[in-house]
Amino acid sequence: MDDSDVRAVDVEGMVPFRVEWSLITPMVAPTQPMHLDALLAWASVDQANGDIAAQEALPLARMTPVDAPERWVWKASRLRGDIVHRYQMPMFRAFEPWHWGEDFGRIYTSSKTTMTGGSGPYKSYKFLIEMIVVPRVMAWGVGDIDAVDQLLQRVRHLGRLRRLDCGRVGHCCVREDAVALEGWKERVLPVPEAGYYEVAQGIRPPYWDRHGHTRAYLPAGPLFPGLGETAAASGEQLMPRGCPDGRS
User: Fold this and answer.
1) By C-alpha distance, which of 95, 110, 103 is closest to 127?
2) What was the pLDDT predicted at 5?
3) What is the DSSP string of the chain?
4) pLDDT for 8
5) What is the per-residue pLDDT for 238?
6) What confidence score (pLDDT) does residue 221 get?
7) Which of 116, 123, 129, 196 has its CA 20 to 30 A from that of 78?
8) CA-CA distance, 186 to 193, in Å (whole number)?
9) Dihedral, 103, 105, 109, 113 alpha carbons, nearest 10
10) pLDDT in the model for residue 133
11) Closest Cα to residue 242, out of 19, 58, 93?
């Protein structure tokens, strides 16, 4: 992807930035890429008291393919962090054919519509969830840094099972960073890019909505990659009490 393939939507006041989170508790290992724009979409809807339309007006710049303007994406990368420990947390779940099939890789073929949950083959069952310890998480984007910072203060947890306090955020810091001019591309893209592979996935929030799945391109490697060279290029380390300029 080069300048002949896309054009930037230039909006006054939008600058390259990076976000750094410090996590206090382990988070659930992602089974899909976690995108910064997804967090901002959730925070925008939350701020708008549940108005879903708020997720269509994020404080981010856009990348729009010249040949397919309807396939635009927000300039916001996926999240990444260095995993220092993995373990499995046991949980219990009531029998539901959908979850049962996902957890055990089997297809429910019975014609029964009523299940006895206390005993027999359809009783509640134990399963394991992979947990990861990630002290530091980062993402990159291009947008209105103050508006992004304000929205992210609403995000108190990263990943699933926040009801169990998984992935609790200690500090969130948003600061200007020129590395994000390229770093935002570490995400699902609507056009091919070297080192990316083809997937069927949404390209904008809500990513969980399968009706929005389309041909897209995802960076090769783990779904939740380490900080790597992009973070090294950013240089500065996460401040334990927030950003040097007073952001927290």
Assistant:
1) 103
2) 39
3) --TTTEEE---TT-EEEEEEEEESS-EEPPSSPPBHHHHHHHHHHHHTTT-GGGGGS-SB-EEEESS-GGG-EESBPBPEE---EEEEEEEEE---HHHHHHHHT-----------SSSGGGS-EEEEEEEEE-SEEEEEEEE-HHHHHHHHTT--B-SS-GGGTTTBEEEEEEEE-TTHHHHTTSS-BSS--TTEEEEEE-SSS-TT-GGG-EEEEEESS-SS---HHHHHHH-PPPPTTS-TTS--
4) 38
5) 46
6) 87
7) 129
8) 10
9) 10
10) 95
11) 19
pLDDT at 239: 47
Locate tokens 């054919």: which residue? Answer: 97
Question: What's the confidence (pLDDT) of residue 231?
Answer: 66
- Reading the block at residue 232, the tokens are 């090294």
Tokens of 208: 């969980």
The structural domains of the chain, ordered by start, are 6-84+134-187 (3.30.70), 86-129 (no CATH)
Contacts of 171 (CB under 8 A, 6+ apart): 20, 21, 22, 238, 239, 240, 241, 242, 248
Fill in the amino acid letter for 200. A
Peptide bond into 219 cis (omega under 30): no
- Tell me which residues of the chain have a pLDDT lower than 70: 1-12, 93-125, 229-248
pLDDT of res. 4: 37
Q: Tell me the pTM.
A: 0.78
